[in-house]
Amino acid sequence: MTIAMKAERIHLRVDDQQKALLEAASTVSGDTVSAFVLSAATEAAANVLADRRTFTLDEQDWAAFDSALERPARDVPGLRELLAGPTVLDANNPQADEGDT
């Protein structure tokens, strides 16, 4: 069995309550704080990404989804113009500065 060496570091700043909570949880689970935090963060990251890549549908919902995908695209009035125009994120858009005041 080969064990990969860990070469990268992540530094975190926590307050006293967060540190105490992490220490207590890691003690109960029998891990070091680093191992506990790494495990929890890795699991959370995998869940966040899985929610964006995979979804499960029952047979009825799959049929409805598949049917929607098979329908030809339709023109939605005003959508083309909306997507072609400037947004509040555009640097030269005066609306972008309205929320800054």
Structure description:
The chain has 101 residues and is mainly alpha-helical. Helix content is 56%, strand content 0%. The protein has five helices and no strands. It has helices spanning 16-29, 33-53, 59-70, 79-84, 95-98. The chain is extended. The model has no long low-confidence stretch (mean pLDDT 87).
Q: Which class of secondary structure composition applies to the elements?
A: mainly alpha
Mind telling me the C-alpha Rg?
24 Å
N/C terminus separation: 60 Å
The number of distinct helices, counting runs of at least 4 residues, comes to 5
The low-pLDDT segments are: none
Name the beta content range: under 5%
Biggest sheet record: none
Give the tally of β-strands: 0
Helix content: 55-70%
